[in-house]
Design a protein that fits this description.
There is one protein chain. The chain is of the alpha+beta class. The chain is built from 2 helices and 3 strands.
Length: 100
């Protein structure tokens, strides 16, 4: 029973860390998009890299142009590393070619 409890706590902690990283990626993408459009001061990818390093998060990729931004972040939880992606801005409209 003790092993099951420890395993459950570790799983919840891992999922919580991954959820937190995804939220940070969303926040960073929104910030980069706002900076790219001029709504917020600063250079998008530079400021995101600075914010991420304060939280021991690695920015693998950051692209901000026009009205959108995309970020890819990596973090570790114990010995496990995980990566998340986020996009902020206008969605690409893809025509539905199957309907008439």
């Amino acid at each position: 029973m003790l092993i099951f409890g420890v395993s459950a706590v570790a799983s919840v902690a891992f999922l919580s860390a991954q959820y937190h990283l995804q939220n940070r990626a969303n926040d960073f993408a929104l910030t980069a998009a706002d900076q790219a459009t001029g709504r917020l001061p600063g250079t998008p990818c530079e400021s995101i890299t600075t914010m991420a390093s304060r939280e021991q998060i690695t920015v693998l990729s950051c692209h901000a142009n026009g009205l959108e931004a995309r970020v890819i972040l990596r973090s570790t939880f114990g010995s496990i590393s995980f990566t998340v992606r986020a996009h902020a801005g206008q969605q690409k409209i893809v025509p539905n070619l199957t309907s008439r």
